[in-house]
Amino acid sequence: MSSHDSVHRLYQQHHSWLNTWLRCRLGNAADAADLAQDTFVRLLQRREQLELNAPRAFLRTIARGLVIDHWRREELQRAYLEALAQLPEAEVPSAETRELLLELLERIACLLDGLRPKVRTAFLLAQCEGLSHKQIAEQMGISLRSVERYVADALYHCYLLRYEP
Amino acid sequence: MNPSPRVVKQAIHWMLRVRENGASPQLQAQCEQWRSASHEHELAWQRVHSLQQEMNLRAVPGAGVVALQTLENSQQRLHRRQAMKLLGGVVMLGSAAWVSKDIGLLDPWTSDFATATGERRSIRLPDGSLLDLNTHTAADLAFDSRQRLVRLKHGELMLTCAEHPLGPAGRPLLVQSRDALLEGFDGRFVVRQERDCTRVTVSQGKVAIHHPGPAGLQWVAAGEAFLVNAQGATPVAQQNMDPGAWADGLIVTRNMRLGDFIDEVARYRHGYLSCSDDIANLRLSGVFRLEDTDKLLHLLPQTLPVHVSYRTRWWVRLERQA
Description:
- By secondary structure, chain A is mainly alpha-helical.
- Chain A is built from 7 helices and no strands.
- By secondary structure, chain B is an alpha+beta fold.
- Chain B is built from 6 helices and 17 strands.
- In chain B, strands 1, 2, 3, 4, 5, 6, 7, 8, 9, 10, 11 and 12 form a 12-stranded mixed sheet that branches. Chain B has a 3-stranded mixed sheet with strand order 14-17-16, covered by helices on one side.
- The N and C termini of chain B lie far apart (77 Å).
């Protein structure tokens, strides 16, 4: 049986269940339908053998990842708008720059996923504000050595996600 | 072929050194030398460099502070959402800390964890369960092939069990307090070591109290709370306070005595905090943020006839408003 056939069968048997599962998480039928669709699209793109012994657990795993991506985007947008609201009007960037930045932030947020908060903060202070390691150490109240280790750890973490997923 | 982890780390090291001391020609030359030593070095360098470029927020005009705020705030809320809605708590949020994949640093699985007064911390355990430590708490782990044991030495912890109730190898998940051994199955529960007893509150799933004395085994279901001491385990009414809200950095009260509320807030502060007897029986309901307890105290006069008096920063007393 080709992998497309098995995806098709999964779709027939579990699509409405997955839709309901997603609706419970997202509280929104339109988003749920989109993500259910995306889940099966993901499956079609996979080259390895599908794990069909526990189809629902398998679908849930993929759908979960998509839900988190969806929420990440939402939360980024919300937090971005809040941050913009605090800027003086003259400093608010153009719509185009805003889109660009949001996209970049989303890429970065994905790469930073799973980092410890201190590691993350140290890295972001270097990356966003261009602070030196010494300034970061002072601001966070930790040693210079810790800052160096955190920033290097964060980069390595991103490297692995980017090049050796 | 992918560069080895060692070479990647070296490349990162060089890149950071050059970034920190960019102007030094000597350092530049040393870095060039390292890069040209092998193809592997150069490939790792190129990748780290382009990764750095891809993540370069300073290239977008006016991005700096806004980007930092956006990333930090959205991350906190994302984890709160995940914890609450999606994974039934398998992913944590403690407003102070977020630990996950790099738990691999803890090896072997025997570690000590402690928090200072006012600090909270989340630790992802090797089985995927989540351990939250509240203010002024110490615990250690003993995970081996037979059991997954968390010893609570003092303070308060919340345990959110991973999806497999017995773990991949069928090992029980245990919390040892001074008074009893608790066994968690699914769900989430809070264990608080009080002066003369242990308080167990289950918010999801169920917990078994294994009591050393004649009381033996006692089951605690979701929504129930028990006090355990040397004599045995006694069910108690739930407090007028959400038992696990601290893990989200909050105190959530429903008609709570002000005196009890102040005792609770005092756990998160250094120094002396109290209230006079004539207001201790006032009641309050609400959601209070723990991150700044001074601010929290200053909110009280808005809803209650009280006055916050500071003798020093660390000596605070609530009194009836004149």
